[in-house]
Amino acid sequence: MGRREDLATIEQVKVVELSYKELERQILAHRDYYAYIPYVLFQKESVNLTHKIQGVVRSGTRYKLPKNYELVNCGSKNAPKVYRRWNKVEVIYGSATALADEAFMVDEDNIVAFLM
Length: 116
Hints:
By secondary structure, this protein is mainly β. The chain is built from 1 helix and 11 strands, in the order E-E-E-H-E-E-E-E-E-E-E-E. The chain has one helix at about 40-45; strands at about 20, 25-30, 35-40, 45-50, 50-55, 55, 60-75, 80-95, 95-100, 105, 110-115.
C-alpha cells in the first residue's frame, strides 16, 4: 500500500445480513466487481471466472493470502523469540459466477460472499 495505483474510491458502506442458501440459478458478478475467491471453489467447480473483455476470457490472479496465525517460540525458555506463523489460503482474485445447485453465503442484494 502507499503507491498511487493502490488508491480506492469507496462509494458505499453497508451492513448486510448473510444467509447460507443453495442457489436455484447461477449468480453473475456485478460489472467491475472483483473478489478474492477461495481456490478450493474452483477445484470443486462451484464457480467460474466470467469477466470478458472483447471476447477474451480474463483469468484471475492466484495469491496465497494470510488468514490467521499461531505464535511460535523459536528461542529458549529464558530468552524467548516469539514469531507469528501464518496459515495461508490459496485464492484467485477475479470476477466470478456462482453456479446453480451449489450453496453459498449470499447477502440481501443477492451478492455472493466468498468466505475463507
